Amino acid sequence: MSAEAASPNGASPEIRPVDNPGRRRGRARIDLRRLGRAALFGPASRGGLPDAIGHVAEAHRAHFPDADLAVLRRAYVLAETSHRGQMRKSGEPYITHPLAVTLILAELGAETTTLTASLLHDTVEDTEVTLDQVREGFGDEVCYLVDGVTKLEKVDYGAAAEPETFRKMLVATGDDVRVMSIKLADRLHNMRTLGVMRPEKQARIAKVTRDVLIPLAERLGVQALKTELEDLVFAILNPEEYEITRALIAAQDATADPLVTIAEDVRRVLREAGIAAEVLIRPRHFVSVHRVRMKRGELCPTDFGRLLVLVGEDADCYGVLGELHTCFTPVISEFKDFIASPKFNLYQSLHTAVASAGGDVAEVLIRTHLMHKVAEAGVVALGNPYVPLDGPHSAATIANAAAGTADVGRADPSRPGWLSRLLEWQESAPDPDTFWSTLRADLAQDREITVFRADGGTLGLPAGASCVDAAYAQHGEKAHSCIGARVNGRLTTLSTVLSDGDTVQLLLAGDTASGPSPDWLGHVRTAGARIAITGWLDAHPEGAAVPAAAPRPSASVTGGAMRRAAAGAVVGVPNATVRLAGCCTPVPPDAVTGFTVRGGAVTVHREGCPSVTRMLSLGRPPVEVNWGATGDCRVTLVAEAFGRPQLFADLTEAIATAGVAVVSATVEPPSEQRVRHTYTLQLPDAAGLPALMRTMRDVPGVYDVSRAQHPATA
């Protein structure tokens, strides 16, 4: 069976905060745990629907009063008859699982198509029902959603079944985000009922939930699912810390809650200011309490919850903020405005903290009712992303505002920046293991920045991304030839870490044959850039043997024609392509040697280059190289200098005066008043190199100029 199962009295600890009669919880927090059990025991038949689906119908009509329930009845009948006779490991009829999953989504406000697919989500996987039958009975949309969440068979994929199933699911999510909504609700119900599984299987499922599904729930903004999944995983993977946290919450709930008094004071202040608002106490979930305890060491009574203020309009949020900061003592360091700058998962809210007259500090969340719906249900609250939603306060408006799109009549949350990047790099992941490990690393990056391109566009990148990441995000594989960058107008190294709001201009070499440096792997944060760089390096290994299909030519001259490089290098291999190594940039009259690399090409190095030592140690036979007639050549020079104003301008002017073209230039950050400039130059004649180096040494502040002896960092 596809769904994990457990007895209601299984070993998994039930996560349910102890209610305090004095704490007003209100309807803002959706109690999915209670409703999950209620789905199994529907009351009398309602409107011709089977008893068991009555709660789903009621929850759906609360969000969509005019919804046509006939299609839900047909889906339920097909699911119930298909799963009839199948039991969960707890002994419950299997139909209880799709019913509970559908109720979770109905409470979050999912539209009818999503609920229909949710009822049928295991039929193709676990019964004789086919996708064609689903398409014929319920249409292409429902069929696509069911197919998106259907697992791949282990008999066909073996150990790769799980990663390949997630790959398939993510690709489907790229076309319709509702696929992942169903998967998240499916995993939540499975996690609730995991107790009858063996402890090692509980731990395995919990780890995948922690590493993959919880980050996806966070990125899709489905906080109601994410927080409960976090608590369930916490109970399985950290049982001791979980019990400590549960005891702390139970002890606090048995005492007077200072948030009750602060909430009354806030209501009075807003009432006197004429602002219509609902003030609720929002208890922290278990993992949140645990994080606060780890951060602060000792918990205060107000650390177990936060105040939630719900208003009607955006402007009222700032009105509430002004009143709170006027009538209470604000903690300025706790203020964050996620309304003006929404999070990348559509989340909008004002965060602040205020101190009461008694000295108790309360954290306060301020948002509209619509913002709260999106904060709890995320993309589920947006419904069908391909149906225009009208109205000035529609969820489409929020989605498009967060995505920065101009078309406010159509919400399409299925391609946020992080998902687009994920879908791009997964195509290049060479095997399931690489995909699985890279996916977990990618999802672990939980914050995004936006940088501006020189042409006016924007790039969404994970926090900590460098210019290398920006290059691959903007140019794809063309970024292999990136030689430098300007950040906010200043020339900088490719290793520079970008900040939110930076403007970045990537500089590409005209020579498309150049490739990335292995050093770049130490600077990348995006999976796409890492896979692209690794792929290029694997395809161009300086020290790798030539494949058997392409035997290495003889290293001795046999009287055939010789191939000459642009700078006059002549090698003893007939009809071979000659490349001058970028790591040491040899020019006449340097002593040089060559090595045959993949494809039969010969790379020419200076004899003192570290690559020569490495290749000889690998048993690679050298190829004879001689200089022919000198001509134009490319060389990399490193200028060591004491930092001073105008140094870069003076060095560039000296090079230009010598009649030499600058291909690229990199200035490393100063260290102990010293700075290093690296120039890649195109000389009209190699014979002029010594004179050029003397000219650069004559620039005030420069104490040494040398040839590059290591791979360039840019």
Class from secondary-structure proportions: alpha+beta
- Major β-sheet profile: 6 strands, mixed
Radius of gyration: 32 Å
Low-confidence stretches at least 5 residues in length (pLDDT < 50)?
A: 1-50, 387-414, 543-566
**Terminal-residue CA separation:** 53 Å
Q: How many helices? A: 26
How much of the sequence lies in strands comes to: 15-25%
Strands, total number: 21
How is this structure best described in words?
The protein has 714 residues and is α+β, with helices and mostly antiparallel strands. The chain is 40% helix and 16% strand. It contains 26 helices and 21 strands. Strands 1, 2, 3, 4, 5 and 6 form a six-stranded mixed β-sheet that branches. A five-stranded mixed β-sheet has the order 8-7-11-9-10, with helices on one face. Strands 19-20-18-21 form a four-stranded antiparallel β-sheet, with helices on one face. Helix 13 packs across helix 14 and helix 20 packs parallel to helix 23 (527-539). The longest helix has 21 residues, at 199-219. It is globular and about 90 Å long.
Describe the SSE topology.
Blueprint: H1 32-38, H2 54-63, H3 70-83, H4 96-108, H5 112-119, H6 123-126, H7 131-138, H8 140-149, H9 154-157, H10 161-175, H11 178-192, H12 199-219, H13 223-237, H14 239-253, H15 258-272, E1 278-283, H16 286-296, E2 305-311, H17 314-327, E3 329-330, E4 336-337, E5 350-355, E6 361-368, H18 369-377, H19 395-403, H20 417-426, H21 432-443, E7 448-453, E8 458-462, H22 467-475, E9 482-487, E10 490-492, E11 503-508, H23 527-539, E12 562-564, E13 569-574, E14 578-580, E15 592-596, E16 602-606, H24 610-617, E17 625-627, E18 633-642, H25 647-657, E19 661-667, E20 674-683, H26 689-697, E21 702-707
Parallel strand pairs: 2-6, 7-11, 14-16
Antiparallel strand pairs: 1-2, 3-5, 4-5, 5-6, 7-8, 9-10, 9-11, 12-13, 13-17, 15-16, 18-20, 18-21, 19-20
